[in-house]
């Protein structure tokens, strides 16, 4: 036998299900001797309850049991944990039932009386296959990142997101302050966390603060902390977010909502890396990398006197704009698949994917709430879904009618498709030929030439987008 424990920890957790007490106790004793953590259950319902509380790495179950046989247990376990290996134990001569079990998704089957060496070998192989699948998924994730298709958990391969990845990878190792802009729900917080994970501060804290959620008096205390007696109710010293983030990263969401008086103090911290707690006089030194985010136009706020110009330039050392979901093309399906897998596991459902109508509905929606809206829609769809695939009625979204001039596929010529793609993309980018060219992977000159052919000027599209 190979070594059964690593650093004193059990090799894996095995759930043994058998209605015969002697068989259960015998397998439990032998498996524990081999270093496995073992749970036992006398029947299927008890096994499901145990699996819900302590997810097993492998399940070994008898086929013939009262209340719930092994095949039904297998199906219910698959709904809870789609990838957990199940080894079926059958009586000699039940080969046809064993074959049915394998077709239903069992990973292996053994006949009674169980040969213990064969059982441990089957368990080891099942665990090895599970580990290989996990390693393969991790390698695929790393490959996607290496090829520019992903960045520390962010999902998407569109040209718009590739630009975000490139800037994020460049800025992550530096100390420079980063300003992330974009509409609500585009994933600004996720990008901030990804930059932190790629930075030399990855082992330090990542502290967040939503600046719009607090009143001015509370915001200052949250940022800088306060001394005992600083104000009514301050019965002890409190450490603020800057001190909590020392040695790591502080993410300030909706930084554009910070009131002017607090803006002055924030500017001082960025310039001098010191501050005083509310009600205190002693300077506190901190080593913090600041990442800020906003859905406001800070440059416009500076021009109109609502935001300090010097603080704006301190925050905007490196600017990253998160694109809205409507400009990310097929990323919406990648994200939808990701959320489907996640919520299916959380809700213990087995859902294989989407109907064609559901997929078309997802692609047709403009997602004004961006990734956050998509995530909420998929969670609701998973909860409501009663079949093996999500259908269009499960999705809580209303799709607007096709835009004027939209083409039908199949049925349209390539010229018609190209025309619609260019004009629709220009509408989505508010008439920006540069952004449209980037999304369509063609040159700006090509777009300008096509617009001339269509009898439409770029200025007209820009005015329409602004309106």
TrEMBL record:
Keywords: ATP-binding, DNA-binding, Nucleotide-binding, Phosphoprotein, Transcription, Transcription regulation, Two-component regulatory system. Gene3D superfamilies: 1.10.8.60, 3.40.50.2300, Homeodomain-like, P-loop containing nucleotide triphosphate hydrolases. One of its GO terms (biological process) is phosphorelay signal transduction system. Residues 154-383 form the Sigma-54 factor interaction domain. InterPro entries: AAA+_ATPase, AAA_lid_NorR, CheY-like_superfamily, Homeodomain-like_sf, HTH_Fis, P-loop_NTPase, Sig_transdc_resp-reg_receiver, Sigma_54_int. Residues 13-127 form the Response regulatory domain. Pfam families: AAA_lid_14, HTH_8, Response_reg, Sigma54_activat. GO terms for molecular function: ATP binding; sequence-specific DNA binding. The modification 4-aspartylphosphate is found at residue 62. This is Response regulator. It comes from Polyangium spumosum.
